[in-house]
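Treating backbone geometry as a discrete language has practical consequences that deserve illustration. The sequence in question and its structure tokens are set out directly beneath this paragraph.
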Amino acid sequence: MDQIFAALASAPRRKILAYLSETELSAGDIATRFEMTKPSLSKHLRILESAGLIASDKRGQFVFYRLQGDNLANTLASFMQAVCPVSQELKQESRALARKKAVKE
């Protein structure tokens, strides 16, 4: 439980969760949304994954990330995103990305 709260304590990690709220994204897609080094982003992703909040899937040379399904912490994070004004825009972007992917498939 401590790992979960430590993971949620970081604003960039909460933003990553918001981006992943509606769709999975590659590490590169996530990186384009942040002004941080790739090693820093990798550290954030590792922390979220070790806390059980996200899962990764390597496909060829790309690693895709998605929220872990039934998870109390993600339920709480979703609640926080619903009331956080910053997260609303990120969730809208995530929904738009999901729609684009659905059209392509």
Observations:
- The first strand starts at residue 25 and ends at 26.
- The CA atoms of residues 2 and 31 lie 26 Å apart.
- The mean pLDDT is 85.
